[in-house]
């Protein structure tokens, strides 16, 4: 096998097709493929339009023997605010292709998001994880993540588009 070099970099508009491919792979893994309805155009507009709603990093692998590169992972994040602590960074989505796991790529991506948070004077980084994903839970705990569901007894609530629109009309 050819030697590969992995680079973690900010996503560019041309990366959206590959990011969407990985989002769909993650949705299959999370047993919710029907929920991944986002389009490449929306993904691009929402990150690179006039008012970005998220930012992303990608992991790109290139071979020493060719000039070809391939995206093998990504992290989507955005800044948030906590009235108790102030600035925060929210890790919305995080994925490394299965064939490239166990080589420190996920740690490198997550560490880059953490560095961005520190650079922007964030007081916390937050994310969610499915309760059955023991591999991810152990990964996050290994890197200092705390399960606030257990420790602080928080519940995460959500309104999807239909509920949001109905509530707004009331």
UniProtKB/TrEMBL annotation:
It holds the Pfam family Acetyltransf_1. GO terms for molecular function: N-acetyltransferase activity. One of its GO terms (biological process) is polyamine metabolic process. PROSITE patterns: GNAT. It comes from the Eukaryota. Keywords: Acyltransferase, Transferase. Residues 6-164 form the N-acetyltransferase domain. The keyword Ligase does not apply. CDD domains: NAT_SF. The keyword Transferase applies. Belongs to the acetyltransferase family. This is SAT1 protein. It comes from Branchiostoma lanceolatum (Common lancelet).
């Amino acid at each position: 096998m050819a030697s590969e070099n992995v680079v973690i970099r900010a996503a560019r508009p041309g990366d959206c097709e590959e990011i969407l491919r990985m989002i769909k792979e993650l949705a299959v893994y999370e047993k919710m493929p029907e929920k991944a309805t986002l389009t490449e155009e929306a993904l691009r507009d929402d990150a690179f339009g006039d008012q970005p709603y998220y930012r992303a990093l990608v992991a790109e692998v290139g071979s020493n023997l060719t000039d070809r590169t391939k995206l093998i992972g990504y992290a989507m994040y955005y800044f948030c605010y906590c009235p108790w602590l102030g600035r925060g960074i929210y890790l919305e989505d995080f994925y490394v292709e299965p064939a490239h796991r166990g080589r420190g790529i996920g740690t490198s991506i997550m560490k880059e998001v953490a560095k961005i948070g520190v650079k922007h004077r964030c007081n916390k980084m937050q994310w969610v994880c499915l309760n059955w994903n023991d591999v991810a839970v152990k990964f996050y705990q290994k890197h200092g993540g705390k399960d606030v569901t257990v420790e602080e007894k928080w519940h995460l609530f959500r309104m999807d588009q239909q509920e949001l629109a109905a509530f707004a009309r009331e």
